[in-house]
Amino acid sequence: MPAQAAKRPDPRLVRVDDSWLTLPNPSGIPVDICAGPDVPIESVAIDELLTVLETADTLRSLAHATPGLDAEPRIDRVVCTPDFHKGAGIPIGTVLRTTGALIPQAVGNDINCGMRVEATSVTVDQIRPHLDRLERRLRHLFFEGGRRIGLTARQREGLLREGLPGLLADDVPAGSGAGSADRAGAAGGAWLQVGPDDLTDLDGRLHSSGYPVSSADGFRDWITSGGGTSYDSIIGSVGGGNHFAELQYVSAVHDGAAAYAWGLAPGQVVLMVHSGSLSLGHQANATGRDQARAAWPRAVPTPRNRILPMLLDEASAPGRQRYLTAFANAANFALGNRFFLALMLRAGLASIVGELRSRQVYDAPHNLMWPEPDGSVLHRKGATPAAGAGGAGQRPIDLYGEPVIVPGSMGAPSHLLRGLGNTRALTSACHGAGRSIPRGAAARGGDAELDAFLREFRVVTPLDHRDPAVAARRDIVDAWRRDLKQEAPWAYKEVGAVVDSLRRADVAEPVVELRPILTVKG
Question: Which family does the entry's similarity section mention (predicted)?
Fold first, then answer.
């Protein structure tokens, strides 16, 4: 697909400077968009955002129908990150702060979708000669029954109620902690890759290790599935769309002090996982919609944009708590899922290099909400926290700021940055490059471009397109190629321009650049 021609900015946007635009709107809500002149912004995303802002009228109607509220429910501010693009009702890259209400759709189905990054003891030169074998091993681990993640009902419930501390509370069926090749062989499960760094000193290496709640009853079927120690097809799944598990290496260092503090050095192999809560998130979001409908006043028409806020009033508290409990369960599951995906990448590496160490750099969420004691709620949809330095401790996150993980499109470099705590950005940054072409249009991209891409880059999928038996099935191969085109480089914005927007806007400063070695896609 030829390079896209530069487009004139949408006339509804007002550029303030080289880093920021604003969007005047009938609701009078302050809307700031962080994007440099070289970052494209879809007009359809602006259309969608203006539709979202109609929720201000919905909140006024709800307030009128609900006397006695402590605070007037409203949307206070909206910030859009450089990867801003059309979503399914609410644009990706939208940060929305409300008072007196929360909006389930402003987080969506994939609750706590996020990124996990680990720094390993392996160098890129150690694995470059063995990529064919590594690809076969990862295909087995991810798609051919090799993950073998056995969980007891107690571990499942612990994960959903407490996050990683609940999952790891009991004696873990861990290996030696060294990831030796014999223990990570074909018969070994992902649990064998658990090392001492996974069980202790998590503080400062995750935005949160868990979101504790008292119940996980909404997911009782998953907790008790199989009885005893059981295996399922959910935990350890990459998911679809732009989710991935990737091996990368440090190709450039921009901030030596922060890189050293985070345990990163040139040539080092890094694991990056992008996944979320899968079917559990869909179930939790459905719970939110159901509870919002149940509490909806008869006198208030269903809004045209189909966005149903939940007021933070006493009358709706029981239903709201049911949603927030399911929400936390799904968020905790996502933490565990990324943990196991990283263990599976470790197992693939161990089959090549033998003994290795891998230590988490950070786990950052994208799709979450943060209720505050003052009655405000910060919602992030496809956006990541970017708090600045200044904590009271001596942890790297206190000294350098919160790690911001910005992957590029498939095959493109990814970037780790340190957050600067920019209040204009609602201390938020983007979670990737962001789409520039809708999936349907991208799927119609040119075959020559896809072939050229596949000659240069390895994508591990359930289907091995090099297998002669598979290649003979043209219908299967064509469907596989259509799926890949939807996530191909031409479907996304150029990540360098996106990262530069964050830097110029004083949202985050680059620390290292990461080049991909291979990507696992579901």
Answer: Belongs to the RtcB family.
